[in-house]
Design brief:
The protein is an all-alpha fold. Helix content is 80%, strand content 0%.
């Protein structure tokens, strides 16, 4: 496969990792609203009946399989730095979908992460 295709697959892994985290957060919010007690067992019981939780599990499982397949043709030392993009995607998506606050220094840090990733990849 071409290096562009490899990079796109790795970005896809990071993106899907972020999607899984957002689904999990949505499930936790739904479960918290259903559970009147703030205990771990009560949250767990409420969480397992949410569609977001099960979708997060399915997305996460797919990502593990995709990652395993990618590692058959990309060395781990080349692939793993792309995982840091999940941090960037997750924070941006949280701002968009959950109204999280994203300070300017976050974007400065993301820029540094992207520059670092470019240095590693080149």
């Amino acid at each position: 496969m071409s290096s562009v295709t490899n990079a796109l697959l790795l970005v896809c892994v990071a993106f899907l990792l972020a999607v899984g985290q957002l689904l999990l957060k949505a499930g936790v919010q739904t479960a918290s609203a259903m559970s009147h007690k703030a205990t771990l067992p009560a949250l767990g019981l409420s969480l397992v009946v949410t569609w977001q939780f099960w979708t997060a599990i399915m997305v996460s499982g797919f990502v593990v399989l995709l990652w395993a397949w990618i590692l058959t043709f990309i060395p781990l030392s080349k692939a793993y730095p792309f995982v840091v993009l999940a941090f960037v995607f997750t924070a941006i998506f949280e701002s968009v979908f959950f109204g999280g606050q994203t300070p300017v220094k976050f974007f400065v840090g993301c820029s540094l992460i992207l520059v670092g990733l470019l240095v590693i990849v080149k």
